Structure prediction request, 363 residues.
Amino acid sequence: MKRTGDVIIVGGGVIGMTTAYFLAREGVHVLLCEQGQPGMEASWAGAGILPPSDLALALDPFDRLRALSGQLFPELSHDLQERTGIDNGFTRCGGLEFIGQAGQADPEEWYGLGITTNFLSDKELHDLEPALAPHLGEAIHVPTMAQLRNPRHMRALRVACAEVGVSIREDTVVAELLLEKNRVKGVRTANEVLTGDAVVVAAGAWTDRLLAPLGCHLGIKPVRGQIALLNPGRVVFSRILLWGSRYLVPRLDGRVLIGSTEEHAGFEKITTAAGIGGLLDLGVRLVPELANAMLEQTWAGLRPGSPDGLPFIGNVADIENLYVAAGHFRAGIQLSPGTALVLKERIMGQPLSMPLEAFRLDR
Ligand SMILES: Cc1cc2nc3c(=O)[nH]c(=O)nc-3n(C[C@H](O)[C@H](O)[C@H](O)COP(=O)(O)OP(=O)(O)OC[C@H]3O[C@@H](n4cnc5c(N)ncnc54)[C@H](O)[C@@H]3O)c2cc1C
Prediction:
């Protein structure tokens, strides 16, 4: 047996990689195991929408974690760019949340979160975004809504992790968590045993598979999301369009991402005719000019869905040094800096930036 890391992290998605980066920046020796290539699962597939929240006013634990993350994103993005030269595309492009048919937008909710919004009539909507179809109804304008480009963010995290000394083992499946009395002492991979003072399971939709042999069943399940990427060849609109649980995200180069389905299809990570067809219909309905855009790419990702929609952040009951950070469902990118910060604080015995009670594994 060899000593390999102060902290072993299982999973190279946005949660595992950001946590690794934050720990290693403070001198912790981190070993990260990823069964494939880091940053190629849900964290690659996501749309990168970052809704705002205000830490001073947010009361709900989810909103507070989002607000904490929101405070960290500009600095983290800048830091990653300085360190790696990779621009993750973080930008406050603003968003338009439609009322009407989709019916989910509620101005009161934004107001309660301390977020400045304004209500736009159909006409005002067109003045702001002339490419929108007529008669879509009213919308709430959220000027501080932001976005980033997931693949770039993940690439930047990976380079930054390597720079601060994180050892990344690619193509390394963790098959088992190794316990000794009430402590985890490491992990077993196909051909070696890796030991550490603490282990973090950040294995996204796969998390329950690793924890089940310990009798820990969190109920995290894969929830498939499909996305279509269009290239209209020019910038057609510039704000994120939120239509119920689906959306259009305009990138700065004019490309438009249309997402996303929500399907319980196990670990089958495929795109389907019905899934992509429905997204394309929505895209053309909201922005008719997209009918002529090139369909550049389609993909699917597996969100780590948790039973109550909240992530799990904390240690496994009775195993002080075995931590889990998973189950972020549709919000793993937006919650990643806050999750990584509080988890780093917890592991290092530092004062917590926010309470973790609501995210306990045994809640
Ligand atoms: C279509 C789609 C759109 C989305 N849009 C948004 C959005 O706009 N905003 C937002 O905030 N979130 C969004 N999300 C959600 C977000 O992408 C996820 O919540 C987030 O990526 C979860 O990160 P993760 O690190 O927990 O999981 P993952 O990125 O899936 O990472 C987990 C990693 O663990 C590895 N792993 C698993 N088991 C093992 C093992 N035994 N050994 C070694 N490695 C293992 C996996 O290979 C994987 O790389 C979206 C998701 C999808 C699919």
